[in-house]
């Protein structure tokens, strides 16, 4: 009987312990939705929190819990979060490169029937491309972003350069002058770490040389002459001391840090870098940053390429297994609403194309001090935004290409060898 | 040995300890001073080895989240709390049921005793990564993801065998004669366990409890995969999330790191007598 | 109740059976937990490794037999990763052993402040792995790190070096971080073993004219052998499965150079969504780990028998 005592005691303790941690709170009349988004580019968490609070004030029966993560963690968190029932998140930010994989995995809810014709017509067609597959729509556009070419006006002036470069070759010449004159040690900084960021930079350069990722039949084409030229050129800038060696491990945040600390004359980055450069609490170069159209290679210009950038847009999608699709959709609609988008346009330009026309354009440009500069830059650059391949195995394919670029830049393999190996990997993935 | 030679030898040995102490302390002191710096000072070149304007702001950000500028400090305290809850629960359960098993395995000869011992030893050798997929799939089917209970259960996979093994080694050091004497006096097995063995083995139990706590506190891989929301996120996961964000909050990360390191370090220092015996016991049969 | 012919024998048997029953009750909760959380999953992993299992909702699993294993073994990345992981294991455990032995000896010779030294050793060991990683990541930082600052002030480098971007340096730096973290474990085990060694053997040898080095090599080291082998086994098995520190310091870069075998499994199972391959990889890892452990243990118990 003593033994029985013992067992009962233990069982009780176990139950107590587990009960304590597994306790569910009393049922709430309000619905709580969980939203995951990135803490990088676009709006800052404090601002998104503000929007969430406004939404809650207008919809007292819905509570919004926001979660923020660095961009690189989001993909895996979505995968693991979706394994939970109910899913860990009701809505997540979807980068432009994920829909193929996630739709195949059944994560994203088909929202075609929830889109009103106003939305369809009002938002940029390009923004819908990111979330439309086979005629069905799986998300709400949120942030349209491309990479811009930004330079430091003062530094160029000090080096005696009149205008920013139009071709990458010109960039090299200008960078050499800047370096020689001692204006800054490493004139250019890029985002080439072993992360998605390097593929973005590579896209800009590749298409600017007239190259493409895939050819007409869907086979890898980035390892042809044009691609190899691009990679070789990139390595050369490192070897010549024109590109900052830490580019190989700098993500876009680090690029911004270097640019606004006055350690680079040229930096390719998303829109947020510009507003940060004018933030007196962080930046040493307030008022010195300027936009220029993204350069292209001389060969690309000869082939008719007028501009090149990369589409880094993101949207919000409802998770297919979310128990609260209606409430979530309400919130996403609010996020994307014109009013909200206009108010925060300094950080993130609206996805509504009408804002960029006529009177609305003037209003938009006047909305914040920097809009007068960023809006024209956006209108000029966005038409040339290129997409990365829309394949369901993109995550792994990108990893292979990231590796190849890293290997070439660190001298482990020749550019041709590295790209060929990556292309071979893409072929096996496509099977 | 000639006296001055002896002094020389003593001096020489002492001088040898200095680089070792430097090796041990420089990184940790740097962590600590970084947590007391402002972001601006941390980015100074050349580095300010001691902050010129030390501040507790980073810690305040964590404990009084409403003032914090960035989001991670705000939620860090919750992650710390989760870690405490989970590590405590794991330790409690392991000590409770593990001590029983440990005693049975070393003192009671019964048919599958040897087999079970080998089985427990073997399970210690299985790496976490081999168990994570099934645990993940089951946890998701049972809707346990993002709840602390899933981590508590998953941690059993390495904490329980470890705890059993350590306690087994400690129980072995309890003199058999004590048990025999009690047996003659009419005590049965359970009585012996409760009244004779446990009290004597208390240092061993403390040692085991401490090690188990440290083991659970330290764990990252399972926590990374099984928890992503605040409901169950642990301190190591929270620290990893400092990286890659909009404005990498290094000082916040350092402060978080110090806080996440405090419980295990303090426990280790307080119970330092038990640390070494625990290490040897845990390793001896392993 | 009624007295039987041989009451003593009957009670002896019954006691044994009683013992066994109690033993089972004591062991059962732990056994259930371990079977549930270890045995069953490892079998499931083994079974899963024979399927093509993409992550996702309502995804179909197709049986592919040994297909996953073949894919893994044919992939060059797999072997490179094994090589890297072995490099990490051998170098870090080797360094930990040497440093640990040296420091254990140092403490054993009881210089001034040896107690403080022994106490301090606990600190690096107790710091959680992720905090350790974050700390070293910051120390190695290309733009603002303490390592660069120190080397620059000592005049050893002219520019700040992006250490974590150098493919060959990155792994070694991770090893350094791990050695700092784990060396105290080895040092403390060896030091407590040293403290229990009988001194008479060495004193006798000293009287016979053996110098310090000879005494160390022929007497002390062999007596330390069990402790060294124990530390070796534990550290080797743990070092082989390293993940946390590579994840936090370099995220596997640069150019995949710090991706360890566990990290590779993570990539496949979660980042690429290929659970079948992930299962195959993780099963291979456990087979490898257990084999290594068994080999070591055989090695550990043989010399003891010969003594």
Question: Would you mind describing this structure in some detail?
Answer:
- The complex is a heterotrimer of chains A (431), B (286) and C (307).
- By secondary structure, chain A is α/β, with parallel strands linked by helices.
- Chain A has helices at residues 2-22, 45-58, 71-81, 99-104, 117-122, 125-129, 153-158, 168-180, 196-208, 225-239, 252-260, 272-277, 298-302, 325-336, 338-343, 358-367, 371-381, 394-409, 415-430; strands spanning 31-38, 62-69, 91-95, 132-133, 136-137, 140-143, 148-152, 188-189, 266-269, 289-292, 309-310, 314-318, 385-386.
- In chain A, the strands form 4 sheets. Chain A has a 5-stranded mixed β-sheet. A 4-stranded mixed β-sheet of chain A has the order 8-9-7-10.
- The longest helix of chain A has 21 residues, at 2-22.
- Chain A is globular, with a radius of gyration of 24 Å.
- Chain A starts with a helix and ends with a helix.
- With 286 residues, chain B is mostly helical.
- Chain B has 2 domains: 1-55; 68-282, MetI-like (MetI-like fold), CATH 1.10.3720.10.
- In chain B, helix 4 (71-107) packs parallel to helix 7 (148-172).
- Chain B is flat and about 75 Å long.
- Chain B starts with a helix and ends with a helix.
- Chain C has 2 domains: 2-48; 76-305, MetI-like (MetI-like fold).
- Chain C has 12 helices and 2 strands; from the N terminus they run H-E-E-H-H-H-H-H-H-H-H-H-H-H.
- Chain C has helices spanning 7-48, 67-74, 76-108, 114-126, 129-139, 146-153, 167-195, 200-207, 212-240, 244-249, 261-271, 275-306, and strands at 51-52, 62-63.
- A two-stranded antiparallel ribbon of chain C has the order 1-2.
- Chain C starts with 6 loop residues before the first helix and ends with a helix.
- The A-B interface holds A 2-3, 6, 10, 13-14, 17-18, 21-22, 34, 39-41, 44-46, 67-73, 77, 80-81, 83-86, 88-89, 251, 253, 261, 282 and B 43, 69-71, 85-86, 89, 92-93, 96-97, 100, 136-137, 139-141, 143, 145-149, 152, 188, 190-191, 225-226, 228-230, 241, 243-248.
